[in-house]
Write a structure and sequence with these properties.
The chain is 64% helix and 0% strand. The chain is built from nine helices and no strands.
Length: 217
Amino acid sequence: MGFEKFLFYLFGAITLWSAGMVITRRNPVHAVLFLVLAFVTSAALWILLEAEFLGIVLVLVYVGAVMVLFLFVVMMLDVDIATLRAGFIRYLPLGVLIAAVMAVEILLIVGPGNFGLAAFPPPEPAAADASNAQELGYLLYTLYVYPVEIAAVILLVAIVAAIRLTLRRRPDTKYLDPSQQVRIKKGPDRIRLVKMAAEDAVALPAGRAPKEEEGTE
């Protein structure tokens, strides 16, 4: 067994172990950190498979942005650890059943014929100095352009739905209305003159200078 194959099995074992720790850790912060480790080792597997672009994107997007955001959100939330521990044992049989059903479905579906990939001609082998990003972009936007567009539409609908569900107008919240801002006129809407009566001068104690003159010789 060569050194490259040894690294592949090593990173694969670490990925499986960290993925198992994600769903078994009771502390959500520890679970997020193990998920970061799973993403890093998955990126190492991509690089070993000569897919450097996917490995770098996995590190930059998921580890560098998404998981850091998850970690901050989990740390800022007041998570009741005791409630999580009580519900873990109670819902464990249901979770195992759902995981088994998902595993069976994946085993039944995974395959080139079931995904319709057999209808496409196999790509020609690329040269040794070929760019992974160029080849990936060519496949995504030529052979698989319709699945990419469908996924983009689904993600767009999900983003719009998430914004709509979280958009709430509270009466005690101050916000700006652009339609009212553009209707403001130069004169009375921006400047208001207030007339105030003149105040009488306050007599200073004897021997005390005004504040602006204090400290001068």
